[in-house]
């Protein structure tokens, strides 16, 4: 009698296919994130240095050669800010649909074109056209677009990357002002502007083209996304939350961004004159003003190292309180408080720059982020365009007491932030 053979071992059941890309090892993922932040941060440094920080060094030589008042060039810059505000929502909508790579790469070409027009402009009309084109580039190529690109790639986990690129681009003025000044003094303002245009083609465009193509909003959520029923890819309107509470939060947040950007731009343009109006001599005013940049970077480092464990709403409240505290110190103590004012204003402004990207993400999620961000920042860009003239007139009329205007706006922004409540579990 034959001994029955034991049944052959059954083949192990094949593992179900991973419904999407397998997550990379933690070390590989961290290296990719670091590379992404370095590339995007470098491109943002170039974009800010060659647009927002351009007039400070080149407005006077531009105006002098073309026979214009310097204020005319600053007015053209305000036009660029208005154009960028109007472009922002559409650029964000495109990023929501197609990712940041094509939009940011296109912005590099727009920067190069706009700067080339400026460099070759023989008269005021073409100079105005160049600034308008620069507004198109700014609306599709500065922080809001970069933040939307990161959210498209990383979803709710984009906060650290947003902080990282603001840390790098926080040195845009440190790089941009000396480089623009050196080129202008040696080769003239046209060569300086043309040099920035060339950098966008040789450096900015390759960096933006190197961004990932695919949508990877958190590989840990891929399975859940695959199992979930299909849903519309984009919101049907700019303020996506349909509930009245959601719309109110959007309105409050838009006001906060507009108020804080007005303050930031007003102080950036008029800080030395403001400090001298408080009684500080020129050398002391310049020395105190030089503290703002390092304080901004310091605030962002603080956010990256520790404050990111807090809900962005809490850090935004703390940051919004920094400017009025410094302003009150300057009003009460006089020029002795100028360094404290510069440090508090700079640190708060640095953290608020991050909050402009992370707070909408924390409150409303990644869906439709780019378009929503464009609408949220539209009032802020318009306030930014109005700030130099409006605060300049206040400074002429009231001197250092024009700070009460900023204190009032900051107080209203704090009240708006106090009214906003984080979502459950936030």
From TrEMBL:
Organism classification: Bacteria, Pseudomonadati, Pseudomonadota, Betaproteobacteria, Burkholderiales
PANTHER family the UniProt entry points to: CHLORAMPHENICOL EFFLUX PUMP RV0191, PURINE EFFLUX PUMP PBUE
SUPFAM superfamilies named in the record: MFS general substrate transporter (SSF103473)
An annotated GO cellular component: plasma membrane
Topology in the lipid bilayer: Multi-pass membrane protein
Pfam families: MFS_1
Organism name: Inhella proteolytica
Record's keyword annotation contains Calcium: no
Any one Gene Ontology molecular-function term assigned to this protein's record: transmembrane transporter activity
The protein's name in its UniProt record: MFS transporter
Record field: transmembrane: 71-91, 103-122, 128-153, 160-181, 248-269, 275-297, 318-337, 401-420
């Amino acid at each position: 009698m034959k001994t029955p053979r034991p049944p052959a071992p059954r083949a192990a059941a094949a593992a179900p296919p991973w419904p999407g890309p397998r997550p990379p090892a933690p070390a590989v993922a961290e290296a990719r994130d670091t590379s992404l932040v370095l590339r995007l941060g470098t491109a943002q440094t170039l974009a800010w240095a060659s647009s927002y920080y351009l007039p400070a060094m080149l407005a006077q030589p531009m105006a002098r050669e073309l026979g214009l008042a310097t204020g005319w060039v600053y007015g053209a810059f305000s036009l660029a800010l208005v154009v960028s505000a109007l472009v922002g929502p559409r650029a964000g909508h495109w990023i929501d649909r197609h990712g940041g790579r094509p939009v940011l790469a296109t912005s590099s070409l727009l920067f190069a074109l706009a700067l080339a027009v400026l460099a070759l402009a023989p008269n005021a009309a073409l100079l105005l056209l160049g600034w308008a084109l620069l507004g198109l580039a700014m609306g599709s190529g500065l922080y809001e677009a970069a933040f939307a690109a990161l959210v498209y790639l990383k979803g709710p986990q984009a906060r650290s990357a947003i902080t990282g690129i603001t840390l790098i681009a926080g040195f845009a003025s440190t790089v941009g002002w000396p480089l623009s000044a050196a080129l202008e003094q040696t080769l003239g303002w046209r060569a300086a502007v043309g040099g920035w245009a060339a950098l966008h083609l040789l450096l900015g465009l390759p960096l933006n083209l190197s961004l990932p193509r695919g949508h990877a909003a958190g590989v840990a959520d891929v399975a859940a996304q695959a199992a979930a029923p299909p849903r519309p890819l984009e919101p049907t309107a700019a303020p996506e939350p349909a509930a009245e509470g959601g719309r109110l939060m959007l309105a409050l947040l838009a006001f906060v961004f507009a108020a804080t950007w007005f303050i930031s731009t007003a102080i950036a343009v008029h800080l030395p004159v403001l400090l001298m109006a408080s009684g500080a001599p020129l050398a002391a005013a310049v020395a105190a003003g030089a503290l703002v940049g390092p304080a901004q970077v310091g605030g962002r480092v603080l956010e990256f190292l520790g404050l990111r464990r807090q809900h962005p709403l809490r850090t935004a409240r703390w940051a919004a309180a920094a400017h009025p505290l410094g302003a009150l110190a300057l009003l009460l103590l006089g020029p002795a408080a100028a360094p404290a004012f510069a440090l508090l204003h700079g640190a708060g402004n640095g953290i608020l720059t991050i909050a402009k990207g992370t707070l909408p993400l924390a409150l409303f999620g990644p869906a439709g982020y780019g378009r929503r961000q464009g609408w949220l920042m539209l009032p802020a860009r318009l306030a930014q365009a109005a700030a130099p003239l409006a605060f300049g007139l206040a400074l002429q009329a009231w001197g250092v007491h024009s700070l009460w205007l900023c204190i009032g706006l900051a107080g209203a922004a704090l009240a708006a932030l106090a009214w906003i409540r984080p979502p459950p579990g936030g």
